[in-house]
Amino acid sequence: MPADVHHITHPLIQHKLTLMRQKDRSTNSFRRLLNEISMLMAYEVTRDMPTQLIEIETPLETMRSPVIDGKKTVFVSIMRAGAGFLDGMLEVVPGARIGHIGLYRDPKTLVAVEYYFKMPQDMQERDAIVLDPMLATGNSAVAAVDRLKETKPKSIRFVCLLAAPEGLANFRASHPDVPVYTAAIDRELNEHGYILPGLGDAGDRLFGTK
Fold first, then answer.
1. 80 is catalytic
2. Which of 13, 21, 98, 173 is buried most, with the most CB atoms less than 10 Å from its CB?
């Protein structure tokens, strides 16, 4: 596996992902599991997040101790399914800023079409973590990071729940400098661009739509 693809195999994440894949899983249960998995994945994604020392007082003495600057982190949610990923990440890094990229996939061409883009100011000072549960064809992820790079953030990472080999190859060809974090690399895409074995349409299962 390429060094810039991080396959997170923690047993708790894999267990919850198995439950999410089940077709009879309720919308409420699917949503809760995605929230829990995103919290667990946040630990890996933020493992090398920079810290700074501040002076504090314990009950016994003064000391210098590390803290992260959450305000320098931006979670970039690719709408709409990215919203389900966002909540769990914010539980772990509540001070983070939030950006949104609205994309939809043209059902005929599978090309990503942008309809919304809103980022915090001063992105040059911030580390961006892009969130989308599915890396299928990779077209949406490539388009989102293309657009995000125009704001010149300090760094970019892409986080997904499932990735297809085709999507990983497409993304790495366009953005070899952006590491990918995923809980699973599935077998392939079908003719409609869905991941197999996958878990269906993450947005539909998250929001109870069809």
1. no
2. 13
